[in-house]
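To make this tangible, this section ends with a sequence with its structure tokens:
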Amino acid sequence: MNNIGVNYFIENIKSGRIIVGNRWANGKLGWFEDFNKDCQYRFCETDRNGHRDIEKLCEQKTGKVLACGFVGWIIRFWREDIGIVYSGYLQYRLNQYKNEHKFDLGVLERDLECEFYNQYEKQEMEWVKQSEAIFEYITNEESDLIKSHVDYYFKYVNKSKTMHNPTSQPTTKDSKGNSERAINEDGIRELFDAKLQKSLEENKKLSQADFIILRLKEEVGTIINIAAISLIFYKSPYIKIPKNEKTNDKIPFKTWQKTFYGLMELSEKSSYFNETKLNAKNKIEYRYDDFRYLRPEDRKVRDGYEDMKGEAHRQHSTYKEVSTSILSL
């Protein structure tokens, strides 16, 4: 086995190639099969000449699963783009959880994404433990590589959990008993241009500024959504963004984001995101209509907004195409 490369056995698991002459690391003869194309790998033995026993093959289809979950997934997409592989698998599991609960009574009152992250790591660790059965078939170096992928994947999961789960934030109850965010309303109103004091056509009792404040109070969602809203504010000509005293230019977006978080009563430890990342995550498009009164009326500026929205859509479409190809198991 001295001449075997570090990816030799994993590549053979991925391809389903029969190993007879060199044998697997534990001396067995045969191949690995993902019968249902769901990243659950079972071992199928052969005789010393590599001949398959058809009767045994029927039994092996329901035999012991030696690799599943993320370990099975990483083998299925071995040596492919890690970013796409990790994010594709996490999204696959998240969508799976949402589909399992979409018909539950009261589902609209629940945060399925939050529920998913709270229970997911324990389940995935059980699959990882089960998948250790495959280590006897591969080299120690390959086993260490898989273990490293598992470690990095769970770090990615924890980072995603921080980005998507609701932040610990002060809330109050409105007159109907619904939760709403406690924000620095006076500080936010000071940023509004006079245009936003215009009454709403459909509700003369509310101004556009009132509508925006209501939306902000309802925003008890994720930190990345709030970061996206901060970008919408930053781009709007109707928000008086603080200026640099020396240059008279708007303060940098990163500085503004910190200011906005303070007005939204968020922790100083909250995550920060640059403009490119916010656009790429398609969050601008989702929140754009909620804050439509910040949309520029000037054609040139408005086109810039549409470009921003279009870029978010293009990024989302590109990801959707790639992830669809990954998820078509």
About this structure: The first helix runs from residue 8 to 15. Confidence is low (pLDDT under 50) at residues 174-178, 298-329. Residues 8-164 form one domain.
